[in-house]
Design a protein that fits this description.
- Chain B: It is an enzyme of class 1 (oxidoreductase).
- Chain B: It catalyses: sarcosine + O2 + H2O = formaldehyde + glycine + H2O2; sarcosine + (6S)-5,6,7,8-tetrahydrofolate + O2 = (6R)-5,10-methylene-5,6,7,8-tetrahydrofolate + glycine + H2O2.
- The complex is a heterodimer of chains A (about 80) and B (about 400).
- By secondary structure, chain A is mainly beta.
- Chain A has one domain: 2-Layer Sandwich (Folate-binding fold), CATH 3.30.2270.10.
- Helices cover about 10% and strands about 35% of the residues of chain A.
- Chain A has 1 helix and 6 strands, in the order βββαβββ.
- In chain A, the strands form 2 sheets. In chain A, strands 3-4-5-6 form a 4-stranded antiparallel beta sheet, with no helix packed on it. A two-stranded antiparallel sheet of chain A has the order 1-2.
- The relative contact order of chain A is 0.28.
- With about 400 residues, chain B is α/β, with parallel strands linked by helices.
- Chain B has 2 domains: about 15-60 and about 170-235 and about 330-395, FAD/NAD(P)-binding domain, CATH 3.50.50; about 100-165 and about 240-325, D-Amino Acid Oxidase, subunit A, domain 2 (D-Amino Acid Oxidase, Chain A, domain 2).
- Helices cover about 30% and strands about 25% of the residues of chain B.
- Chain B has helices at about 25-40, 55-60, 70-90, 110-125, 135-140, 170-180, 225-230, 295-305, 355-370, 385, 395; strands spanning about 15-20, 45, 65, 100-105, 130, 155-160, 165, 185, 190-200, 200-205, 210-220, 240-250, 260, 265-270, 275-280, 315-325, 335, 340-345.
- In chain B, strand 1 (about 15-20), helix 1 (about 25-40) and strand 2 (about 45) form a beta-alpha-beta unit.
- Chain B is globular and about 65 Å long.
- The interface of A and B includes residues 2, 18, 39 and 48 of A.
- The structure holds flavin-adenine dinucleotide and zinc ion.
- Zinc ion binds near residues 8, 57 and 63 of chain A.
């Protein structure tokens, strides 16, 4: 079980949270091709290593926040 | 006692092959077997970074069925199930394929509607399917709690009698022996670390054991597909997640079918040896760590005990996780990629064991002819751009 540091509530168990996937995926600006739209809707980074991701404190204060987590060691650090 | 004969050689890589398959799990091995058997293509290497079939092939709960909702899925999974029905004979190896029947329980009205719809869809596609009421469920599987006061009342179930389980290690060994016998090099301890691409065509792979030239390169790397694709400059609609399972201590025969429940995220069967084999849903986050959270197992066990009170004092022997490659529509991605000569077979996520022979069959054909096999065509990468998704979340998301 991960220990996630909610910016409002402090460190809490993973099962209080909902996972939100990759952080910082920008909405495509202006005219988009079908390929660009497909990439925006369906494609996310899937790195083996450090990953910036969103978490939602669904069973707590209901804050969305960003963490950096290593996808092999599951180590968590404050996003730089 | 003498040591048993080895079932395949352990060759060093040669400098070049017609086809290099990346990943020596069930799908890679089945692809090699059918490249040789169906297409006479034997100048082939299967490169495996660990040991043969030590990934998800060694970690899955071996449930086999073909009762998916959409025509495209029914066609490919039923093709696979038909191959399973002849596979022990074809490979001359007892795969312990046991068609003991797969139940998918319904616990609420939504489940009931979805289940009945799927039974009808299956029948229209020539896939055997039945709808059972609670009493029939009890008759088919006496240890399930169908009492009306149960936490998760059993309101019925779909049954595919031709579904069941097989012994995963035997499947891998038999496919490996067959491929090796045709002259395919199965190369273990050989990690692919990059691709040489000239004028948009892949010409070689770089590996931990040197450069290997290749006419064609076929990915069959399951949870690690994104990592490999990135080395070829491709981003695929895949996310890698841990998927956990567990076995109990060995028991006398108590459960002679497979029982799955999407709604409460649990499924269980009893292996030939006697252990109960149970699986959970995926852990929510992306991971390559091959382990998941205990709370996922805990939730799964809590649900299992509601359904099977008789298991309450059974002890867990071990738990583990594999890394599964989940696609946005819970369907696989099979076919060509934007790089010429580079093929992908991935996204089988939580349910690709059942597809092992079918996947290998269509992938080998796709590689041999450099065009999608008709059963693979709907599963091409392009569907995410055209919007022709094959949404199998109902039939596939938790259920294997
Ligand atoms: C716990 C669990 C339960 C499951 N239960 C079921 C079930 O009941 N029914 C069902 O149908 N499916 C099930 N599945 C899914 C099924 O196991 C997979 O979909 C299927 O095994 C994937 O295909 P594969 O066998 O080729 O994968 P794998 O066996 O994982 O093969 C991929 C191989 O690629 C290798 N590889 C990766 N990167 C590289 C590289 N760079 N170079 C060389 N080699 C590389 C890996 O080491 C690995 O051996 C389950 C999975 C898990 C984890
Ligand atoms: Zn909080």
């Amino acid at each position: 079980m991960l220990l996630l540091d909610c910016p409002h509530c402090g460190p809490r168990d993973e099962n209080e949270f909902h996972y939100g996937g990759q952080a910082g995926v920008p909405y495509p600006a202006g005219e988009t091709t079908d390929e660009e739209w497909a990439a925006y809707v369906f494609v996310r980074d899937n790195p083996k290593g450090w990953f910036r991701e969103r978490w939602f404190h669904v069973h707590g204060c209901r804050t969305w926040f960003t963490v950096e987590r290593h996808t092999v060691t599951h180590e968590i650090r404050k996003p730089g | 006692m003498t040591h048993p004969d080895f079932l395949w050689r352990n060759p060093d890589p040669r400098p070049a092959y017609d086809v290099v398959i990346v990943g020596g799990g069930g799908h890679g091995l089945a692809t090699a077997h059918y490249l040789a058997n169906n297409h006479g293509i034997t100048n082939v290497a299967v490169l495996e970074r660990g040991w043969l079939a030590g990934g998800n092939m060694a970690r899955n709960t071996t449930i086999i069925r073909s009762n998916y909702l959409w025509d495209e899925s029914a066609a490919i999974y039923e093709h696979s199930l038909k191959l399973w029905e002849g596979l022990s004979a074809e490979l001359d190896y007892d795969l312990q394929f046991s068609q003991r029947g797969v139940l998918n329980l319904a616990h609420n009205l939504g489940d009931v509607r979805e289940g009945r719809r799927r039974v009808n869809a299956n029948r229209l596609n020539g896939v055997d399917a039945e709808w059972l009421g609670p009493e029939e469920v009890k008759k088919f599987c006496p240890v399930v709690n169908v009492s009306g006061s149960a936490r998760y009342p059993v309101m019925g179930a779909t049954l595919q009698r031709r579904g069941g389980i097989a012994k995963h290690d035997h499947v891998a060994w038999a496919l490996a022996r067959s491929a090796d016998g045709h002259g395919v090099d199965l190369i273990q301890g050989c990690e692919v670390t990059g691709f040489e691409i000239t004028s948009n065509r892949v010409v070689a792979v770089r590996t931990s054991r040197g450069r290997i030239a290749a006419g064609k390169v076929a990915l069959a790397a399951a949870g690690h597909t994104s990592v490999l694709a990135a080395q070829a400059g491709l981003r695929l609609p895949l996310q890698s997640h841990p998927l956990q399972a567990l076995v109990s201590e060995l028991l006398e025969p108590v459960l002679d079918c497979v029982v799955m429940s999407n709604a409460v995220h649990v499924y269980v069967s009893q292996a030939h040896k006697g252990e109960l084999v149970m699986g959970a849903g995926i852990d929510a986050y992306n991971s390559y760590g091959q382990r998941g959270g205990v709370h996922v197992i805990e939730a799964q066990m809590a649900a299992a005990l509601e359904l099977f009170p008789i298991f309450s004092r059974v002890r867990v022997l071990r738990t583990w996780a594999g890394i599964v490659d989940v696609s946005p529509d819970a369907s696989p991605i099979i076919g060509r990629t934007p790089v010429d000569g580079l093929y992908v077979n991935a996204g089988w996520g939580t349910g690709g064991f059942k597809a092992t022979p079918g996947s290998g069959w269509v992938y080998a054909d796709t590689i041999a002819h450099d065009r999608p096999h008709p059963l693979a065509e709907p599963f091409a990468l392009e569907r995410f751009t055209t919007g022709a998704l094959i949404d199998e979340h109902g039939a596939a998301a938790v259920a294997h």
